[in-house]
Amino acid sequence: MTKKQTLRIATYNINGINSRLPVLLRWLEEARPHVVGLQELKCTDEAFPAKDIEAFGYSAIWHGQKSWNGVALLSRVGEPVETGRGLPGDPNDEQSRYIEAAICGILIGNLYLPNGNPWPGPKFDYKLAWMDRLDAYARHLLDSGLPAMLMGDFNVIPTEQDVYKPERWAKDALFSPQAREKFKVLVAQGWTDALRSLHPDERIYTFWHYWRNSFQRDAGIRIDHLLLSPPLAEKLVKAGVDREPRGWDKTSDHAPTWIELKV
DNA sequence: ATGACGCTACGATAGCGA
């Protein structure tokens, strides 16, 4: 790092990277994040638009899957050194929901946590089991003492403060007591919820449904999170949500969510 | 309760996921 003061790291559920490519590239050009974790690529490894992304100055690693899921890490501050692909803890889990790399001396885990609807049901059970595996792995990361972070689409609304109208989400897996409790226990291991720690009293949303003019009414929820280990938390200087891209044409239902770290 | 999107396929509309 030469004279750079801060490192900007973002998470963005792109909801189909090839359909959203113009939106992604426009945002990369305008926001110029140093590191980006993407979720919901909805493409195979072969169909990942690596050349387009490289043309904007980013190295990338990705873990695709036909039709669903898929995660990637982008960096314009050195090539990501991959340290993990697939969440440990279940060798039979074939869903592409986790990719991890060392970038600029930071261990970055990028995740797409299962949605879990309908609740109850097997998809909800899968969500809770996935969260148990994440809990175990996150503990391992903290124990390493490394500057580490876990970011992505957690598909969990942590508290009533993180939803425009709690009663509308009462029967949704994203707001279920079980998922919220597991998220709470995870953070309590010693992670810092970056956005909430810097903005304790604000309403912060990262997702708005396409239907019923949700974005225009700001009827949103906060489900995209960046969790920092103690050595990173002390370097946190800014955090926010880029709401503008959510208003663009043919856009994702999520907005890019980011932090800035002292380097 | 409603419903928007992208993706896929014994495809040209419908089911699935979320």
Automatic annotation (TrEMBL):
InterPro entries (alphabetical): AP_endonuc_1, Endo/exonu/phosph_ase_sf, Endo/exonuclease/phosphatase, ExoIII-like
Keyword NAD: no
Keywords: Hydrolase, Magnesium, Metal-binding
Protein EC: 3.1.11.2
All residue ranges annotated as the Endonuclease/exonuclease/phosphatase domain in the record: 10-254
Keyword tRNA processing: no
Broadest EC class assigned to this enzyme: hydrolase
Domain of life: Bacteria
Cofactor(s) in the UniProt record: Mg(2+)
Listed Gene3D superfamilies: Endonuclease/exonuclease/phosphatase
Span of the signal peptide: none
Family in the record: Belongs to the DNA repair enzymes AP/ExoA family.
Name by which UniProt lists this protein: Exodeoxyribonuclease III
MF GO annotations: double-stranded DNA 3'-5' DNA exonuclease activity
